[in-house]
């Protein structure tokens, strides 16, 4: 290739200088060659977010213009920050061309950063409405740049309309164009540049992120760009945010026109060099869509080696009628204490070229339940959130309630399920599932939304399960009551479907108030019992005292009676003396 390559890097705080990667005398861009360049990006622009690569011409004045005739295939770009030794790898694996199908001479890719979801790669559809005046058409070249909260798309020349016709050549005509870019986020303004030629009356511009998105932004213009007095001059106009009119609609014609996939996907997985497992025998993939999910598929059954450290594996995946991909579930089927380190994944529709990717840098093994879920990020769908679920399992308190074999849970919500998750690591640092004991586990999964039910099972002896409590990000708590024996026949698993008794924050406070009231009532009852007992004791003492006084009175009566008898005897004795 006899052209030059231009590189621009974008960060959280801005963008780099335009860095020219010259072909030079070494013919840096010949087939199969790796070329190295030292570049100065200029002022620090923060953590890397994306890069843009373009093939350019350089005229005698040194001005760089995008080359529209070249065909060049770029495999990947590696960027090393010599100050921090931080390396970023951008796997383009695409043509830079205007003649190859679904290709462009300008391409962007997002940076894949550990623990961060990359910005999605989207397709912008722009529809220009030329004005009604008889002279409103133009023969000029037109370029457009979209600016947003995440940067800009770079200047893109509009050459070929979607229907393949001439552009801007008639009044009262709509011309639509497509180009791919890393999303710019919330659109702020659009720059339209017109080269030399007839002035152009632009009525409005409609921008959609995603060709088949139901949401659009309408930039009203109703202005002439350029002038008939100075036809050789370049002209431009900014369409600002205040000119935007948002619209949400369903266009059945566009939905029907969307290219249909035959379900032929390619999964690309890169294993990190630090992976402990030198080889993986069994790995299954389940793809969960907005309408249904695929069967678990064993990856690479016909291969002797796969998922070796520092290698990239590709697998063909056939998906039928699952809707838009919502998430991927990779399950490691290895009886080993060692873990697999997955660096990144990509899913690409081979029929429509749609794709999503994620830089993961995660360990998959016993600590993660041997399962990894990866959310799919599409511009027209909400972004799935990866969260942690805290699961507390309470065993009953009857004799023989405990069990020590494998137990598992599947959590269901209004956005799907977590898949079967075995309870491997007990946070309580104790033997699992003992009599009258609570064990705590953490699992990571793409959020299943509001919980509706769960299934708990095991493959050991009879187990008395009291209840299961699941907490989602400490904001919502769900309690599943069981109080049943889970008994398995020989070689079978025992499972129990548990429906939900949801306890949310308000319910918790209400429950706490009820418990406090109940404790207070119990305390009052205890105090009342003590008072009643004291009263009984006092009454008994009074009765004893009354009994004693009664005996004294009786004794007094006896003494009086005895006194009368003595007097009678004295009288009888006196008579006898006479």
Radius of gyration, taken over Cα atoms and rounded to an integer in Å: 41 Å
Q: Count the E strands.
A: 36
Strand-pairing-aware structural class: mainly beta
Q: What does the main sheet amount to? A: 6 strands, antiparallel
Count of separate DSSP helical elements: 2
Show the helix and strand layout:
Layout: E1 4-11, E2 14-15, E3 19-21, E4 48-58, E5 64-66, E6 71-81, E7 86-97, E8 106-110, E9 121-130, E10 142-148, E11 151-152, E12 156-157, E13 174-182, E14 187-194, E15 200-209, E16 215-225, E17 235-239, E18 244-248, H1 252-257, E19 264-271, E20 283-289, E21 297-298, E22 312-318, E23 325-332, E24 340-349, E25 355-364, E26 371-375, E27 386-395, E28 407-413, E29 416-417, E30 421-422, E31 438-446, E32 451-458, E33 463-472, E34 476-486, E35 494-499, E36 501-503, H2 505-577
Antiparallel strand pairs: 1-2, 1-3, 1-4, 4-5, 4-8, 6-7, 9-13, 9-15, 10-11, 10-12, 10-14, 14-17, 15-16, 16-18, 19-22, 19-24, 20-21, 20-23, 23-26, 24-25, 27-31, 27-33, 28-29, 28-30, 28-32, 32-35, 33-34, 34-36
Descriptive account of the structure:
The structure is a single chain. 14% of the residues lie in helices and 43% in strands. It is built from two helices and 36 strands. The strands form eight sheets. Strands 1, 2, 3, 4, 5 and 8 form a six-stranded antiparallel β-sheet that branches. A five-stranded antiparallel β-sheet has the order 13-9-15-16-18, with no helix packed on it. The radius of gyration is 41 Å and the shape is elongated. The C terminus is likely disordered.
